[in-house]
Design goal:
heterotrimer; A alpha/beta (378); B mainly alpha (334); C mainly alpha (318); A: 378 residues; alpha/beta; eight-stranded mixed sheet; four-stranded antiparallel sheet; 18% strand; B: 2 domains; 76% helix; globular
């Protein structure tokens, strides 16, 4: 059984006198123990709201409605009362946020911010807690941890701050870690370090990781399973390799086509997705992506597309999916195979099967994927 | 820290010096000198000249100023023209009353204002929130002296719960040591005298507290609302900390930063704002004395008062800066 | 510099900056702000109160039943007794036998006059100083910064003085009169306006459209007058509305201290309130009526001002 089973979560913000906003509109995905899962999409697609809803961290306000289920280890998190939810947060499920500076309390030393988790969930106090906190900082790669414990967030560099936040998150060895764009606010060189750190931590401790990002480079380097979100719904779910090699949903195709690549042919242009995430069709009236889709057909509008289950557990939500490479290719569609950026990922033996029918794949020198930073704004 | 305090206190000297020159020139431009105040419209030119000569007002301004400065270095502020007593003595007798009143008002304003502002923010959009926002609007718009009169009319003259004037019942014959009546009562173990002095402080304290209370409620509320939306509060929640810890350690402490600043500003203003309240309650503090001094053209008193206000302003500033650096590590005292 | 004075200034400057940043949207800002104002019940209440107040003070004095200074019922006043509400005197008599209703209505005009003139003085002088400093600092190079520095040190000094004390000293110099009150109250608000306009103008001067205009060769005085100033006015207008409220209250306080209007024939709410204190036991309405007038008017200005600030605040706009 999966560690976290998210079923049909929806989040609605209703405002008096205005139309209700469906920020999340029926998201489902699952996370197995120890697995790294990606939630990918443009900003505004509902990926952060989904994670906050699971954690019960959405700001309380009138008109907010959360529906669906988020079953963690047999209990539905959305049905829990406030106290039991607080017991689980930080102990079983921890979270890392985007901006490490604003996510740390500026007027409290780092030490207290680490030990308060230990006190809360592991009953540690005084010297014991301080010693454990120093060990945690050491583990996330902060040099001279004893001194750092007494310092304040503004005295640390951006990367150090994010490491400190990670230390707080892994303090109780949670079974699930949700990372919401953990590297977006950092310099590129620091991004790589932080991703490596996260990768090491989850591998060593067997923690499952939900990686929320708009950065396909991050996804390619880390995630085993990827959920692509659009307009508050999952539009495609697949293992990493099949997703990058043969994306089926036109939105996934478009995302991949928007990434600049070093090994692209000279004169070849990017294929950005036209329009913006605001050009949204409500899911009740058809496919939300239809207004921007290059493969739109009449069937796209009218009723929401069903989820299509394909072979080896992948699924997509599209009536006119991109064809599999090697089969008939639509001339006007972006060629998905060209966008296979993960050719030399961590070498789990999949490289052999990757090289068969993909012309651009398997180049040994292409190295880590360049981090595309602004691809959400075509 | 110690060097910071010493340096700030040394900075006070040029400030006071500059201020004294300004005031000296300014106050001497007041039309009608003290001779008019003493003699009224009658009085022959000879009598006027005699008074001016006695007060040293016929000498060149520079000489007068030099004398003033020499005295001031010895903490001698001169003699009050209207009461014929040493200004320093007058102040030592009256200033403690104003300080007691100011402290009472600030205790009321802070003690009610911060919790109320905090609760209003937590219950945003509910009845308590609307009531405290509305109440603070009215608190800002109501003239202080009118509020003082209303309080006096209702609670002392009609209901008789509180005394209507003065600082202490003179029939108690309380011993005076510092002229802080409450403190004196505690020091001499005259408990009834201390309680009576405290009792006299409550109504004027409430009246004086109205504006700072309203402002503190508004600032606290706005600040808490802002902090509640901060990312680090979400982090604290994500760590599963109990609601109590999140509120105390993460929300309240960060919300207090702007409140501390405003408290400093308000305290400086209160010392001079006490003029109105003290007049209504015949409270013999410095405010009523100074109001009198203005109409009497009592230069030494006015000079001394404004100098003292300046010193207090600098001291309050210093205290705020120090407490600020205690709350917020990003502000370091240097 | 101390934290208090820095924060005080920062607050004013930030307000200026916030409103100024928004002005980049041009005309639509005012339209949108107006639309938001109309949806805000507080703004509507404030506007209605002020509308009534203005109508009463403009038209009222021509319609009052009796002359406000005429002691028509002097003979009915006895020690410890002042006739109250009755058919011919809707609000009763005052302590020397004048019609309280007529005095209230005519007093409204004087009160409005004091508030408006005092605010105008503060607005004019403050805007002049702030405008020169802002233009000098934003566009004027090294000399500009020197001018700005001198002006701002002066403004800081005024800002550090407790406002009532400042007003008392001014009133003491000029002698007691209605003009004195206007000048004293206006002077107190000068530093606020000056800092506000200067801050907004500096924020505007740093914006891209000024850079664009400069690069197109538009001359600096023209940029300042045609672009920077009009786009910096929003926070100043908001502050003026709020200042009207405090001006009326402060004028009342000065009257109470005996520094205000000494001409008994011109009724004014602050003076009426001060006079009525002695009779609060036998005729509380004499104090309560002008006090209510002051409170409600100040509330009206404050509500409208706060609503305007909210309507112009980009943070609250989505």
């Amino acid at each position: 059984m999966a560690l976290l089973e998210v079923e049909d979560i929806s989040v609605t913000f209703a405002r008096r006198g205005q139309r209700a906003v469906h920020a999340v509109d029926g998201v489902s995905f699952s996370v197995d123990a120890g697995e790294v899962v990606g939630l990918v999409g443009e900003s505004g697609c509902g990926k952060s709201v989904t994670s906050l809803a699971i954690m019960g961290l959405l700001p309380k306000q009138p008109g907010l409605r959360v529906g669906g289920k988020a079953v963690f280890d047999g209990t539905d998190l959305l049905q829990l009362d406030d106290r039991s939810r607080r017991d689980i947060r930080g102990r079983d499920i921890a979270m890392i946020f985007q901006d490490p500076l604003s996510s740390l309390n500026p007027v409290i030393p780092i030490g207290l911010q680490v030990t308060e988790v230990l006190t809360r969930h592991r009953g540690m106090k005084g010297d014991v807690a301080a010693k454990e906190a120093a060990a945690l900082l050491d583990r996330v790669g902060i040099p001279d941890p004893k001194r750092r414990l007494k310092e304040y967030p503004h005295q640390l560099s951006g990367g150090m701050r994010q490491r400190a936040l990670i230390a707080m998150a892994v303090a109780c060895q949670p079974r699930l870690l949700i990372a919401d764009e953990p590297t977006t606010a950092l310099d590129v060189t620091i991004q790589a370090q932080i991703l490596e750190l996260l990768k090491d931590l989850v591998r060593d401790s067997g923690t499952a990781l939900v990686m929320i990002t708009h950065d396909l480079g991050v996804v390619a380097g880390m995630c085993e399973t990827i959920n692509v979100l659009y307009g508050g719904r999952v539009v495609e779910t697949a293992r990493r390799r099949p997703l990058f090699r043969e994306p089926r949903h036109p939105y996934t195709v478009g995302l991949l086509g928007s990434v600049p690549r070093l090994d692209a042919g000279r004169g070849e242009r990017l294929n950005p997705i036209p329009g913006s995430v605001r050009d949204l069709l409500p899911w009740q009236e058809g496919c939300a992506f239809a207004p921007r889709c290059t493969r739109r057909v009449d069937a796209c509008v009218g009723e929401p597309p069903e989820l299509v289950l394909a072979h080896d557990g992948r699924s997509y939500r599209c009536v006119n999916p991109a064809p599999l490479p090697g089969l008939a290719r639509a001339a006007d569609a972006p060629v998905p195979a060209k966008s296979e950026p993960a050719a030399t990922a961590d070498g789990t033996g999949q490289a052999a099967e990757a090289g068969t029918d993909v012309p651009a794949a398997g180049k040994p020198a292409s190295g880590p994927v360049p981090a595309p930073r602004e691809e959400e704004k075509p | 820290m110690f060097r910071f305090i010493v340096r700030r206190l040394l900075q006070l000297i040029p400030t006071l010096f500059g201020l004294s020159i300004l005031l000296f020139i300014w106050l001497r431009r007041l039309p009608g000198g003290p001779e008019t105040a003493i003699l009224g419209e009658r009085g022959t030119p000879e009598m006027r000249a005699a008074i001016r000569h006695n007060l040293g007002l016929d000498e060149p301004v520079l000489v007068q100023y030099g004398r003033f400065v020499r005295r001031m270095i010895r903490l001698d502020l001169g003699t009050s023209i209207s009461t014929k007593r040493e200004v320093t003595t007058e102040f030592l007798q009256r200033f403690p009353g104003t300080v007691e009143l100011t402290i009472t008002a600030m205790v009321i304003a802070i003690g009610i204002g911060i919790p109320l502002g905090y609760l209003a923010a937590r219950r945003r959009g509910r009845l308590l929130d609307h009531m405290s926002v509305g109440g603070s609007l009215i608190g800002i718009c109501i003239p202080v002296f009118f509020l003082a009169y209303i309080l006096k009319a209702i609670f002392s003259e009609n209901l008789g719960w509180f005394p209507s004037s003065g600082r202490q019942d003179p029939t108690l014959g309380a011993t005076r040591i510092t002229n802080f009546f409450v403190l004196d009562g505690l020091m001499t173990r005259e408990w009834d005298a201390a309680a009576d002095a405290l009792w006299h402080l409550i109504l004027p304290g409430i009246a004086l507290a109205s504006i700072p209370l309203a402002i503190i409620v508004r600032i606290t509320r706005a600040s808490v609302l802002e902090v509640l939306n901060e990312d680090f509060v979400r982090t604290a929640e994500a760590k599963g900390l109990t609601e109590n810890v999140v509120r105390r350690r993460h929300v309240l402490r960060n919300s207090l930063l702007p409140v501390v600043t405003s408290i400093g500003l308000l305290t400086g203003g209160l010392l001079s704002g006490a003029v109105l309240t003290e007049t209504v309650f015949a409270f013999s503090g410095i405010g009523a004395f100074v109001a009198e001094a203005i109409s009497q053209r009592d230069y030494p008193v006015l000079m001394g008062f404004i100098m003292i206000i300046a010193v207090v302003y600098v001291l309050v500033n210093l205290i705020v800066d120090l407490s600020y650096s205690l709350i917020d590590p990003r502000v370091r005292v240097r | 510099m101390t934290i208090i004075s820095r924060k005080k200034k920062e607050k004013i400057d930030r307000l200026a900056e916030l409103a100024a940043r928004d002005d980049e949207r041009g005309v639509s800002l005012w339209q949108e702000a107006f639309r938001r104002l109309r949806r805000n019940p507080a703004a509507i209440v404030g506007a209605v109160v002020l509308g009534l107040f203005v109508i009463v003070s403009v038209v009222g004095p021509f319609l009052v039943p009796y002359a406000p200074e005429a002691q028509l019922w002097k003979g009915e006043i006895r020690v410890g007794f002042i006739p109250g509400v009755r058919a011919e005197n809707w609000f009763g008599l005052d302590h020397i036998g004048r019609d309280q209703f007529s005095r209230m209505v005519v007093g409204a005009r004087q009160t409005l006059l004091v508030g408006v003139v005092a605010t105008m003085i503060g607005l004019a002088v403050g805007s002049l100083i702030g405008g020169i400093a802002g233009a000098a600092a934003g566009l004027g190079g090294r000399w500009g910064r020197a001018v700005d520095n001198v002006l701002m040190r002066f403004i800081d000094m005024l800002l550090a003085m407790p406002s009532l004390l400042l007003a008392i000293s001014i009133a003491a110099i000029l002698g007691a009169s209605l003009t004195t009150v206007m000048i004293a109250v206006g002077t107190v608000s000068v530093p606020v306006f000056a800092r506000l306009l200067r801050g907004a103008m500096i924020a505007q001067s740093n914006s891209d459209y000024v850079l664009a205009a400069t690069s197109l060769g538009v001359r600096k005085p023209k940029i300042a007058l045609a672009h920077v100033v009009p786009n910096s006015l929003a926070p100043v207008i908001v502050q003026a509305t709020l200042t009207l409220a405090t001006a009326i209250i402060e004028a009342a306080a000065l009257s109470f201290l005996g520094l205000g209007n000494n001409d008994a024939s011109i009724p004014e709410w602050g003076m009426m309130l001060a006079d009525a204190q002695r009779y609060i036991d036998i005729a509380p309405r004499l104090a309560i009526l002008p006090a209510l007038g002051i409170i409600i008017t100040a509330l009206g200005f404050t509500l409208l001002g706060e609503a305007m600030r909210e309507a112009l605040d980009p943070k609250l706009r989505k």
